[in-house]
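User: For my dataset I need records formatted as: sequence, then C-alpha cells, nothing else. Please produce one.
Assistant:
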Amino acid sequence: MSLPVGISVLVLVLGLGGLGVTFGVKYAVGWVTGNEEGVDRLAAVAQSQNSGLRLSVEGFEETRHFTRLTVTATNGVSHSLSLPLFRNCALRDERGSTIMADAFRSDWADSIPPGTTQRGIIVFPGHLPGGVKTAALSFATVFGQGFEGPDSITLGGIRLRPREPG
C-alpha cells in the first residue's frame, strides 16, 4: 500500500471513529440529563389558577426517552409556596395513564417566593401512550408557610397535537 493511500485510510478510520464517539457521548449525556432534542406537541398554552397559584404549560416536548414540559408557576399569595417534584408531580392522560416527574433530570426550582414567577423544565421518563389528545399536570401537595394558597393543584386540558409517524 502506498503512503498516500495509507494516510487516507487512517484519516478515514480516525474520522469515522471520532464521529461515532461524538454521537455516542451526545446520546449518553442526553439520556443522563434528560436534555434531548424532541418534538413539541403542545397545541396551545394551557393555564390554571387555584387560590393564588397560577400554573402554565408553555411547552410539551417528546424526546426519544422523555417528555419535557416547560412550566411557569406564579405565586400570588403573601408567603412562599413550594412545588417539589419527587413523588409529588405527575402527568396524566385522559385515559388515566400516569408518569411521575424525574426530579434529578428536571430544571425546576421547588420554592416560589411571594409575588414572583418561576419558569423551568419538568422531565418525565417515557411518554404517555400514543393517540393521547389531552393531558393534565398535577402537584399532589402544595406546601406553604401560611394559610393562603391551595393544598394541591391540577392543570388539566393540556391539548396536544398528534404524534408524527416514525
